[in-house]
Amino acid sequence: MNDTTAGDAVDDADAVDDADAVDDADAVDDPHATDAGAAGSERPPAVQESLTYEAAAGRVEQIIRRLDSGEASLSETLALVAEGKRLIELCAAELGAVGEALEELRLDELVARLEREAGA
Question: Residue ranges of the domains in the chain?
Answer without folding.
Answer: 6-119
